[in-house]
Amino acid sequence: MASITLRQLAHSYDGINYALQSLDHVWQQGGAYALLGPSGCGKSTLLNIISGLLEPSNGEVLFDDVCVNKLTPQQRNIAQVFQFPVVYDAMTVRENLAFPLENMRMDKPQIKRKVDQIAALLDLTNNLDRKAKSLSADDKQKISMGRGLVRDDVSAILFDEPLTVIDPHLKWKLRRKLKEIHERLNITMVYVTHDQLEAATFADEIAVMYQGKIVQFGTPQSLFDKPNHTFVGYFIGSPGMNFIAVNLKGEALSQQNTRFSLKASWLDTLAECGSGNIKLGIRPEHIRIVEQPTDTSYSAEVEFIEQLGDHQIVTVQFMQQRWHIRIGENQFCDPTQVHFELPQTYLRLYVDEYLIEPESLAADKTRQGGYG
Length: 372
Ligand SMILES: Nc1ncnc2c1ncn2[C@@H]1O[C@H](COP(=O)(O)OP(=O)(O)OP(=O)(O)O)[C@@H](O)[C@H]1O
Description:
- With 372 residues, the chain is of the alpha+beta class.
- It is built from 11 helices and 21 strands.
- The chain has helices at residues 43-51, 73-76, 93-103, 108-121, 137-149, 168-185, 196-202, 220-225, 230-235, 264-273, 361-368; strands spanning 4-11, 20-27, 32-36, 58-63, 66-67, 78-81, 156-160, 189-193, 205-210, 213-218, 242-249, 252-255, 258-260, 278-282, 288-290, 298-307, 311-318, 321-328, 337-341, 348-351, 354-356.
- A hairpin with a 2-residue loop joins strand 11 and strand 12.
- The longest helix has 18 residues, at 168-185.
- The site of adenosine-5'-triphosphate (ATP) has 11 residues, from helix 1.
- Residues 13, 19, 37, 39-45, 194 line the site of adenosine-5'-triphosphate.
């Protein structure tokens, strides 16, 4: 078991475009992590570099502070579970689970003990003597997972979208199972997915990837509350954060003659940044609909309202942007025009796509070398 450190890790398949930009990151030993991002952001590339299937163009992968770049996948002792189950159909479940241990020349009683333990953990005990080919896709995927879990010597287990072939109603069960296994075995687990719900149910902390970079690493709650990049705001949440591009004019932020009043400290901060790429963001949950226009309210045309069980999503056109507002299941909303307030506590300010918090600006500027 090991902590995994990425040090200035980058990868290009063609020597021109970089699938991974320079990554610096640490996954602590024993943590349950998710790597979340859209298709093509570099998740599989990163996983294959960690497991040793791919050699990075630049930088290092360290297991417990030891560089493993030159080690083969076997030498790294990484177990990898892929989208599609990797099982020997002609073997029984027991033989499949025992296979990695037989390769290690473990003695027979020990193999039996280990296989029985993992089978019990994965609810496979009743199927131990059945041929793998007779089992359903989710049982086969459980065997794939089991083959990684039986070995005591694994440094970490990497899951690459392991629930893709699983029936939707069984996905939740299997996710819970993985979480339970993680708690019991204390192995470093990295779970790759493009599904935020999967990431949040499995992981204690999530690394959000975008265009070859880890743009934020944190708990599911922190990603929701304080997305530090506009992409995270948009990608996390259902629907994601609303954004509007604004201009700093004198003492206010504005867009098409609409002014957004902000704390004075924010305006000072913006004046210091000197960038023209400024966005305001707010989550659909945090917009407050009011019955009548007020001095501090904004208005938008309603496009449609969706009833989604315990809440409704109101889709509006706000200054040529499509915005979403989340309201209660029984809350009334005028189907043509809506008035709403944007509480300052929930407004987030982004410069050059990154979150700006006035009080931390000095530190950010030092770290990132300014915003100019
Ligand atoms: N073998 C390869 N040769 C060339 N380019 C590749 C190769 N594999 C991936 N890429 C490119 O590298 C980038 C990252 O791909 P990668 O498969 O790592 O992303 P991903 O986030 O895992 O996507 P997905 O969720 O679709 O699997 C993409 O632009 C992809 O086209």
